[in-house]
Amino acid sequence: MKLVIPNELHDDETRVAMDPPTVKKLIELGFTVTVESGLGVASHHSDAVYTDQGATVAESDDFETAWGEADLICQLHAPGDDRAGRIKSGAILLGMMQPLGHLDLMTKLAEQKVTVLSAEFIPRISRAQAMDVLSSQANIGGYMAVLLAARACPKIFPMMITAAGTIAPSRVFILGAGVAGLQAIATAKRLGAVVEAYDVRPEVEEQVKSLGGRFVKLPTAKQDSTATGGYAKQQTDEERQKQIELMTKHVAGADAVVTTAAVFGKAPPMLIPKDMVDQMRAGSVIVDIAANPEAGRGNCELTKPGEVYVTDNGVIIDGTTNLPGLAPIHSSQMYANNMLAFIREIVNEGAIQLDLEDEIQKGACIVHDGEVRNALVKDALGQTSGA
Predict the structure, then answer these.
(1) pLDDT tens across 166-175, in order?
(2) What is the CATH number of domain 2-130+328-380?
(3) pTM of the shown model
(4) Is residue 129 annotated as a catalytic residue, yes or no?
(5) 132 catalytically annotated
(6) 179-190 and 133-152 helices cross at what angle (nearest 10)?
């Protein structure tokens, strides 16, 4: 079994799909592992460390040869067209492939009879918790978002009683109490802030409270996330407008706002319009975890994905993308462990054996045996749904 790990194409990507300790475990499973030279530079893993763990580090032509012979390719993001075209028939491509944003590539890989397994489509069931890349990376993202907010805020977060007077704690408002939001609540609380949080799913109230936050209740339509696989569903325009009106006072009263709301496979919901930003105090901070380059914004109307800037009324809006990449050692470790857990599901007695009747493998499968299998991707391609 030949496994290959390439460098990533994205300029801001510091993470690696497999860190050295995980490579050693893959070799124990029976893989020969080839990594592209320089793979771990941005995450502080040298070529020598990969070699020490048993991997082959290859450059230029040697790596391209290994790429064309690979049985399994593991990476974070989809490969470029050139490399994708040289993946052999029957090989498996595993990672966060974002197939809805790479429809032409999915069609191309189907024609080549490459199997595409997209990790973000792994179902959120108990048996798959160790493979949940969305949760592992969101944990890091929620933590880093609060650190960015604390760094940008012209106030300190904790209350201090000093001879120079008492300093009131900063107020932090978290929009969305999923994995990233809950980590943001916990981090802001540890830093000493007064924390409020809001989510359309009422069942998260107890989780917010358990982390020391106050759950903001807005009389809007509630959602049952158990019916949507743990994800929030898209709201109607009327529901969103009512939510915005009721949320304004909490946003305007906050020193820092962290937005985390996302709808799987859709553009991020717009929760903070310009009018709301206009009511915030100078020096207030918005860190928009949902900043999405394709949508051109995040949860805030004024977010500029990939940029940090100050509005005319003095509000700092941080649209940093790839927040997990700000802590590449631990985010890589978590991602690699997710990938290892999944790979163990498809390896049996030293051979890769896919079982597309298995709920986890079927959920992750986008392309297999010359056809697009995932219903969402098929619909996006205009094909008949159902596989």
Answers:
(1) 999 999 999 9
(2) 3.40.50.720
(3) 0.90
(4) yes
(5) yes
(6) 40
